[in-house]
Amino acid sequence: MESLENADVYTIGWIAALPIERAAATALLDDRHSVPQDFEQNSSDSNSYTWGRMGVHNIVIASLPDGQYGTTSAATTASNLLASLPQIRIGLMVGIGGGISRPAQERDVRLGDVVVGRPSGTIEGVLQYDLGKAKSGQAWERTGQLSSPPQVLLNALSSLRAEHEIGDPKMLEFLKTMWEANPKMRKSKNKVPAFIHQGFEHDRLFKSGHAHPLGNKTCEACEAAWEEERDERDTTDPEIHYGLIASGNTLVKDADIRDKILQVVGEDCICLEMEAAGLMNHFPCLVIRGICDYADSHKNDRWQRYASATAAAFAKELLTYVPVKNLKSTQKAIDILRSVSEDLRATQAVTISTKEDVENIR
């Protein structure tokens, strides 16, 4: 593998939570690199990295420690990355999530589809559903605001969406190339699913009132009458959805809990996951999720690898719309964090001063 002399040429940080998510990202690299010759890892940084090139961009991939999930672990991984690589401009959080599918409301999210956290209104694409306060009448008020994705990525997203109105996504070509170059990823082994579409017969969306029978590892005993009615798709190609991603520290495997979260965060929510909220205020990034389950009791691991692959392929396509010149002129992620910290300290100082003035008036 090639080893670049200078670590400063790596300007994009890619964070995955799971080893299978990191595997999909690594398999989609156009070139894989050895550790840069001048790289000195910060003493506080415990991350391990994969280096490489996607298109015209050099990226560095990090994943959470094995077996550790949630917003805190994600924030720690991002902070460690920036401590060792302060030249990083933008970030991508790419992996799997639970879909909130409502076919009757034209939100027909299916397994293997991709969800992108896009800003809408006052919400910057990701909302932390377990950070808020209860109010009277079972209402819920959000407290705190997560940062917006970098402008250079939002501009790229706008260009990509326009091109998808004209032609097929390039991510489909990227997936085919990945499978051809890595035949092992196409084959299931010892009941471990491959990084390919798992078949429409294994994509079943059940009504909220029908829980998965206890003790059953598959849904073979789940009655067809329990399923939501959906139109058949004529292709296995994943569809792309743009909307709100709800993030929290709870792994949701219950339809009732999922639906309650939806009532709290609003109808625009189309995905649940566990890490993004820990990143948005620590690491300027865009969140991309492949749908591997419906956040209900029927949840299993069959679709996780394929969903990891579709999310990574979309992220790779998105980077083709990020000009190198625009990326170089983008403020460094660590400088953005310093600016946010300074603004926070200034706000706290004003608050303290105002409090003292009020006390003096009294």
From TrEMBL:
BP-aspect Gene Ontology terms: nucleoside metabolic process
InterPro entries membership: NLR-like, Nucleoside_phosphorylase_sf
SUPFAM superfamilies: Purine and uridine phosphorylases (SSF53167)
GO terms for MF: catalytic activity
Name this polypeptide is given: Nucleoside phosphorylase domain-containing protein
Record organism: Clonostachys byssicola
